[in-house]
Automatic annotation (TrEMBL):
Pfam families: Methyltransf_3
Keywords of this entry: Catecholamine metabolism, Magnesium, Membrane, Metal-binding, Methyltransferase, Neurotransmitter degradation, S-adenosyl-L-methionine, Transferase, Transmembrane, Transmembrane helix
Chain residues that bind S-adenosyl-L-methionine: V106, S136, E154, D205
Residues given in the record as substrate binding sites: K208, N234, E263
Catalytic reactions of this protein: a catechol + S-adenosyl-L-methionine = a guaiacol + S-adenosyl-L-homocysteine + H(+)
Keyword Membrane: yes
Transmembrane segments: 16-37
GO MF terms, alphabetically ordered: catechol O-methyltransferase activity; magnesium ion binding
Protein name according to UniProt: catechol O-methyltransferase
GO biological process per UniProt: catecholamine catabolic process; developmental process; dopamine metabolic process; methylation
Needed co-factor(s): Mg(2+)
Cofactor note: Binds 1 Mg(2+) ion per subunit.
Catalytic activity, EC: 2.1.1.6
Organismal lineage: Eukaryota, Metazoa, Chordata, Craniata, Vertebrata
Length: 278
């Protein structure tokens, strides 16, 4: 009797050891898959990278943490960047996106192309379509000459609220006008609302199906002058075929592609710089 209950206890404890080992092994496998194997595998495919980072991981972390990706990005800025130092804000966001969570900023690699185009154009008036958390806004605004103005448009109020704080943390609030609303409604109001005659530089980085209609709207509203530069992000991934077709074949533009990679991945993407010829 006593031996029988000893045997039962031994069997039970063995089962517990198997069960706990299986749980531990499963958790370790999931951890390796989530942190290493899947991120490494999706580095080379735009479709899988966007599905993994922008849909699966974002929704999972939102549910687990009860916060949004922009809020987590803002916390990383507040924790790691120095107030009034735009470069430290850019570095904090890039570090967060490379090591913690991917996000749809233009990123460091294409960001340095953006920097060189902004520096070359040295705009007095600049327009950004698609602010998100304000990463590219900070990149552009920190390079603007004194007295110049950057207007950035964002139609998602939650993103705009985070961007306002990121721009403020970088100390660039006096150079940036963040306007909430859809580009298609706001572009025709630029002259009335802000007294802008034309833009020297326009960064297109909002939803890809709006690039072409908004470029045409800028022309129709006479917001481009001879020499104005349009710089369009993500022309390969996710891609903007109608815009590229138009801008590369129109006699009104001189256009050039800058090859790079989708932010924080190894997937090909690039920027299209197009000079308006009048
Ligand atoms: C790729 S993100 C912008 C990233 C940002 N430029 C950066 O590099 O940090 C695109 C943003 O455009 C906004 N957006 C998309 N279509 C828009 C539109 N028609 N008008 C205003 N904002 C728009 C989205 O809500 C999103 O925040």
């Amino acid at each position: 009797m006593f031996r029988k209950s000893l045997n039962t206890a031994a069997t039970e404890s063995r089962m517990w050891v198997y069960f706990l080992s299986a749980c531990g092994g499963g958790a370790a496998l999931l951890y390796v898959l989530y942190s290493w194997l899947i991120p490494a595998a999706v580095q080379y495919s735009g479709w899988w990278a966007l599905l993994w980072h922008d849909v699966i991981v974002e929704r999972m972390l939102d549910a687990l943490t009860g916060s949004t990706r922009p809020q987590r990005l803002l916390r990383a800025v507040q924790k790691n960047a120095t107030q009034g130092d735009p470069q430290s804000v850019i570095n904090a966001i890039d570090h967060f996106c490379r090591h913690k969570e991917w996000a749809m900023n233009v990123g460091d690699e294409k960001g340095s192309i953006l920097d060189s185009v902004v520096s070359e154009v040295n705009p007095s008036t600049a327009l950004e379509l698609g602010t998100y958390c304000g990463y590219s806004t900070v990149r552009i605004a920190r390079l603007l000459p004194p007295g110049s103005q950057l207007i950035t448009l964002e139609f998602n109020p939650a993103y705009a609220a985070v961007a306002k704080q990121v721009i403020g943390w970088a100390g660039l609030q006096d150079k940036v006008q963040l306007v909430e609303g859809p580009s298609g409604d706001l572009i025709p109001q630029m002259k009335d609302l802000f007294g802008v005659q034309s833009f020297d530089f326009v960064f297109l980085d909002h939803w890809k199906d709006r690039y072409l209609p908004d470029a045409k709207l800028l022309e129709e509203c006479s917001l481009l002058r001879k020499g104005s530069v349009l710089l369009a992000d993500n022309v390969i991934c996710p891609g903007t075929p109608e815009y590229l077709e138009y801008i590369r074949n129109s006699p009104r533009y001189e256009s050039r592609y800058f090859k790079s990679h989708l932010e924080y991945t190894k997937v090909e993407d690039g920027l299209e710089k197009s000079v308006f010829l009048g």
